[in-house]
Amino acid sequence: MQQTTDSAPRGVILVTGGSRGIGAAICERAARDGYDVCINYRSNEEQAQAVAEQVWSAP
């Protein structure tokens, strides 16, 4: 996988199951890589909000 150092947005990513586990990790990594992230969750809004806050604070 080739990584770039530019900061241009790369698009939008939708992560189903993004409130925990692998989905949350994907959300955080995608945000660090410059993607706009849409987090989908089934039942735990509090956990999804916590992941969203992590994503928003990603450099």
TrEMBL record:
Pfam families linked: adh_short
Molecular function per GO: oxidoreductase activity, acting on CH-OH group of donors
UniProt keyword annotations, A-Z: Oxidoreductase
InterPro entries registered for this protein in UniProt: NAD(P)-bd_dom_sf, SDR_fam
PANTHER family: NADPH-DEPENDENT ALDEHYDE REDUCTASE-LIKE PROTEIN, CHLOROPLASTIC-RELATED, RE15974P
Similarity section: Belongs to the short-chain dehydrogenases/reductases (SDR) family.
Name the record gives this protein: Uncharacterized protein
Organism field: Achromobacter pulmonis
